[in-house]
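pasting for the record
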Amino acid sequence: MRDGFIRVAAATPDIRVADPAYNREQIVRLMEEGAKEGVELMVFPELCLTGYTCQDLFLQFPLIRKAKEELKEIAKASQALNMLVFVGLPWEMEGKLYNCGAAICRGQLLGLVPKKHLPNYSEFYELRHFCPGNDETVEAWDEMFDDWIYMGSHIRFSCSEMPELVVGAEICEDVWVPCPPSISHAMAGVTVIVNCSASDETTGKDQYRHDLICGQSARLVCGYIYSNAGEGESTQDLVFGGQNIIAENGTCLAESKRFVNEMVIADLDLERINSERRRMSTFPSYTQAVQSGSFPGKGQGNLGYTTVTFSLKSQEGDFKAEGGEGKNPSIRRFVDKAPFVPHDKRQREKRCEEILSIQAMGLKKRLKHTGCTYGVVGLSGGLDSTLALLVTLRAFDSLGIPRSQIHCITMPCFGTTDRTYQNACHMAKKVGASLKEIGIKDAVSLHFRDIGQDPENHDVTYENSQARERTQVLMDAANQVGGMVIGTGDMSELALGWATYNGDHMSMYGVNAGVPKTLVRHLVRYFADTCGDEALSKVLYDVLDTPVSPELLPPEGGKISQKTEDLVGPYELHDFFLYYVLRFGYMPSKIYRLAVQAFAGEYSGEAVKKWLEVFYRRFFAQQFKRSCLPDGPKVGSVSVSPRGDLRMPSDGCRRIWLEDLERICL
């Protein structure tokens, strides 16, 4: 347990039907294997101690007793393991037999969760052998375990060392019904659902099963560990494939192959789950759920639930992971270094088309509402202004306004290179927009004389004077035609404050304000790939190959001398930081750990820490610019608009974030 991660496993043992001793050996073997991998929560299939397909053998006393004896042996074996384990078995209580998941930790049987919904259709006939479980927890003395045993579906298993880890269980069919027990569990504060299952294979069922489990984890904002019966369970007319799934809030973290008994391991991020629940005002606390009448508040314990506490030794810094021991052990889950950009080409293209449509529809509405039929775009030949032009094209086309009424203005000055200038000119002509060149060297030089600025002093005044002059030109040019200035700045620049206040910071509608820099590149490439105009595509590809630069300092040898990423850091890192800061509010040290893993082999730990500190310093210092942003469409899960996702004080203190960064040992 570190940084909110808990290592979990779903395991399918090789079993023999009606041979609990053999099955116990296989279960313990997998438990020990999992312990070596640092697993702290392991789930086994439904009735795996006996086999799900025992049929009328469940009515035989020897099988029931032997299963309990072997469960006790599993409990003994767990004494030396730092692990909470769920094992499926039949359990008799008060003269009735129940299909249960037993929770075991460090030698103790914590409780039994009975299956509530017993299928009695098609190939299933569980009501022949078992009774449905009740919500209310009952307690009975057991001679074999020499202890009081809890049984009920409303049991929460809460970790004393990690308050975020609260586990609830359901059995197989329970998740297939209209109102699964896991709904109640989540509303009771459970963050991880385990499912001991024996779901047989039929054609196409695997995809349905996958979607069901991932969908349930998304709906309940939880981790879901699904362990399914496998090959040894197959008998007579049924075949079991052992499809194990670990999901988190809609994302599949790990999934086993079918028809091969496997154990899959992943690290659930409980901080991520709790962050999502905190931000969702519609996700009720358990008390709110009871008071609203949306959940039955009867029973014992915590408003209808019995809470059973278990203990897991803290493993911070003392467990082995891939790569060996160290200050930042690897996380057993995929950490996407480009969280804003889908990896799958088809999904990426679909996302690009969707985002371009959102941007264009936002601008279309503003143009239509204001009765504006002219657009003004400051076209530099860089990525952001290129995307702004492409979005404006879509909006004008959808309104039936001639493209010639898009006024592209290029404003060369001290830092403009021939490459970007030519690309801007060619692009405007190729798309059919109007093009006007307004050089601003003389105006800026006059301004320098007015304020007493030495033109040889290439300081912030030298740079910002050019940006503000360009904005003034665009605004006044828009006034001349009754047009609208289309903003070009993207979300990454706004997060870092990499914009001149009342310069490129300002526009009449900022179409790129919700698009991170890493995604801007893919949007332009998608347009280039699909526009069907070879000449235009050639220009766009060259724009993509041009270094990102504000071009405010004189070029060197005719080439760009001022590269943004040399100054503020790589945008791929900053977009990674931005995602986790805004989406989940993680500690800087956790974001650092995730980034080190995601960018392994590309950036050193020292580089990640350096740029993360730059991000936080700029993010806090530059909020005043974001507090007065022009309108612009939100396109993804986060934005920096003061009217949308980010209601942040302009004068907030960054101290506690930087202090956490300082504690990182390289």
